[in-house]
Design goal:
The chain is mostly beta strands and 358 residues long. Helix content is 0%, strand content 45%. It has a 5-stranded mixed beta sheet with strand order 1-25-24-23-22, with no helix packed on it. The chain starts with a strand and ends with a strand. The N terminus is likely disordered.
Length: 358
């Protein structure tokens, strides 16, 4: 049964607004957010070892919760229980479970970061913030998890955004330029153009790849969108390849509501979930057992969005509805749906809101 995100926990007094979440197992995870304190709102990082049953405040991030500053952060990713990354546009790294953080200087703003339990990749744009046309290539760096050394692996011209998907030593990089395109590397060092599965839409206007994900078995999934845009809706197509980019098969057609270009995840070899938004926000899902998509989570929220959609295994996942930083100003009485953490334990078929107490 679909869940409306307006069923967020009743909060007469807001104490915590979630911004970013990262679980490394079913139970062990961190959430970054804003909490009430003596001076108003403060950046807080919380840790749970029982899937949100209890939360412990860990050391505050040295970098401000502010994406307008070069050392600011708004996203969080952990590779394991000790090694984590706070970023966007700054980059801070911890090797002791968030008790201490070190700032990493890579000469630009971080646009994307992804990690496995062995390696992390980060896309850095030297022209950040993009206040003028940028002719200096963006750089993709790699670091071994647990190390403070980052090495350049790729320069990409005219990139102002992108997505990274990792599987073992393989890296997939969806670059946002005047037209999106896909690069891939089987070893994380040598990249080539990958085939574009996005066929021409029925209108004759071509779709472009806008989101990517890799399943536990290494199957690459690509969302194609950009055609038939009208009234907050657009045609979306999803393709999956089990053999690199040699052949793709289409996985049904997601609902037309909302614009794509958000997040795509593949928690299982046949399960896909994706986010979309326009005047409302959606999480769509398909299991691969048929060619239909469902909408297990949605909200008529003006387009506040679902963010940080991620899974620690095939069944356990998390997503944040309307993260704290989307609000221009965090007031004493923010909207009820702002900064709510949702969890699932059935592969995204159903979701429940979780009260987070700082």
């Amino acid at each position: 049964m679909p869940v409306a995100a307006t069923t967020s926990p009743a909060r007469t007094h807001i104490e915590f607004l979630a911004q970013s979440v990262s679980f490394v197992s079913d139970d062990d995870g961190w959430v970054l957010g804003a909490a009430t304190c003596s001076t108003g709102w403060c950046t807080v990082l919380l840790h749970t070892t029982d899937r949100g049953g209890h939360w412990k405040t860990v050391a505050a991030l040295p970098g401000p919760f502010n994406e307008s500053r070069a050392d600011g952060v708004n996203e969080l990713r952990f590779a394991d229980v000790r090694n984590g990354f706070a970023f966007g546009p700054g980059l801070w790294v911890t090797h002791d479970g968030a008790e201490h953080w070190n700032e990493v200087h890579l000469r630009g703003g971080v646009l994307a970061l992804a990690t496995t339990d062995r390696a992390a990749y980060v896309l850095v744009a030297p022209c950040w913030p993009f206040t003028r046309p940028c002719t200096t290539p963006a750089t993709l760096y790699r670091s071994r998890v647990g190390s403070n050394t980052w090495r350049r692996v790729l320069n990409v011209a005219s990139v102002q955004g992108g997505q990274l998907a990792l599987h073992g030593s393989a890296v997939y990089f969806l670059a946002e330029t005047a037209r999106w395109y896909l690069l891939a590397s089987p070893n994380g060092t040598t990249f080539t153009r990958f085939g574009d599965p996005c066929r021409a839409a029925r209108s004759g206007v071509g779709n472009s790849p806008t989101s990517i994900a890799v399943s536990p078995a290494g199957r690459l999934a690509v969302v194609c969108s950009g055609a038939y845009v009208a009234g907050g809706s657009e045609v979306k197509q999803v393709y999956v390849s089990a053999n690199g980019d040699k052949t793709y098969r289409e996985v049904g057609e997601p609902p037309s509501e909302g614009d794509a270009g958000g997040e795509l995840v593949a928690p299982g070899d046949t399960t896909l979930l994706m986010t979309a938004l326009s005047g409302a926000s959606f999480v769509f899902r398909t299991t691969g057992t048929d060619r239909t998509w469902t909408t297990p989570l949605s909200s008529d929220d003006g387009g506040a969005g679902f963010y940080d959609l991620g899974f620690s295994d095939a069944t356990d996942g998390a997503v944040i509805h309307a993260p704290a930083q989307i609000a221009e100003t965090i007031t004493a009485n923010p909207p009820a749906h702002l900064g709510t953490l949702y969890l699932t334990n059935d592969g995204g078929a159903s979701w429940y809101p979780l009260s987070v107490n700082a």
